[in-house]
Amino acid sequence: MPKTAIAIHGGAGTITQASLSAEQDKAYRLALTKAVEAGHKVLENGGTALEAVELSVVLLEDSPLFNAGKGSVFTKEGKHEMDAAIMCGKTLEAGAVAGVRSIKNPIKLANAIMEHSDHVMLSGYGAEEFALSYGLEFAPETYFFDKYRYKQWSEVRDSDIFMLDHAEQRDEKFGTVGAVAVDMEGNLAAATSTGGMTNKRYNRIGDTPIIGSGTYANNSTCAISCTGHGEFFMRAVVAYDVSCLMEYKGYTLQEACEEVVMKKLVKLGGEGGLIAVTAAGDIAMPFNSEGMYRACKVGKQATYVEIYKS
């Protein structure tokens, strides 16, 4: 029987022990632990990798600590525009949503698109109309309001500056959440969700909902969920590139991840990281930034949770 495994992330960037208080550190670790163990429980009970990654991402979307769902950052207009994607490694089916404003859990909408439509990606008003037709939960603007994120947005809303998240140091914290998993049948799945950039304009969309850039899963290689400066991840087609190195060049998961994250992205000037898993239960969580909120659980092993560089 294949070994069940799951990994999750909650964003990457300039995250050091000096940048978080003891209380913040504890809160992030608790949230990561809850999400990864809930997803792993699904796997251990015979659930699918798709069910596991969706649940883990929903729990991260429901936390105000992460830039997705409830914790999404503010746009230039003071709104919230969210992106998400999910992919099945067995069938290569995928669902994605971009620029939605009122959906409580965008990852659930992405999954509904994959299961109930002939499309891969829906955006904006059309995606919300689709969500209504399948009874997905909407939330008012007050649900997405967070004092800290509002304060960060207030500092830049009258300028042309955008921030990759709500950190005090601009352009140095990338807020995205994601999960990858392998179930008892050896099937892989990946899911990613984000609130995008603080003060973003023009309905900007990043790599998260783009299959092959921020999200990808293929049983023959790996499942990937990325977090970083989306423009670079799109240009480098990061998630699919890791898979390609494994499929066509025979790289191991770790070798492929190192090549893309630590070499290719660095040369482009792209910062961030990713989580990845194979059908054999091997996990990689590389990042070229100061830190990345991450956790994983493999089989009966103890839960691993970390924020900073080892």
TrEMBL record:
Gene3D superfamilies: (Glycosyl)asparaginase. One of its GO terms (molecular function) is hydrolase activity, acting on carbon-nitrogen (but not peptide) bonds, in linear amides. The record marks G175, T176 as: Cleavage. InterPro entries: Ntn_hydrolases_N, Peptidase_T2. The active site is at T176 (nucleophile). Substrate binds at R204, I205, G206, D207, T227, G228, H229, G230. Keywords: Autocatalytic cleavage, Hydrolase, Protease. It comes from the Bacteria. This is Isoaspartyl peptidase.
